[in-house]
Design a protein that fits this description.
70 residues; alpha+beta
Length: 70
């Protein structure tokens, strides 16, 4: 979904300045479309519910893989 990737990138750039609904509206999505995108991103573990200034969602931190070969 093209809108999902656009919203995800905008969420990263937003860095908590706007809440998630206002960010979606700024991009031309209504509240229902924004919520649908958020649900999809949550299910893909790209974002998590965590307060980040004005926004209730934050991108997941990508941890480095451990080298267990030792």
């Amino acid at each position: 979904m093209e809108n999902k990737e656009k919203y995800y990138k905008a969420l990263i750039e937003n860095d908590g300045q706007l809440n998630e609904i206002d960010l979606g509206e700024k991009m031309g999505f209504n509240e229902d479309e924004t919520n649908e995108i958020i649900v999809q991103l949550l299910s893909e573990h790209k974002i998590e519910y965590r307060e980040n200034k004005a926004c209730n969602y934050s991108t997941m931190k990508r941890g480095r893989k451990k080298n267990n070969s030792r």
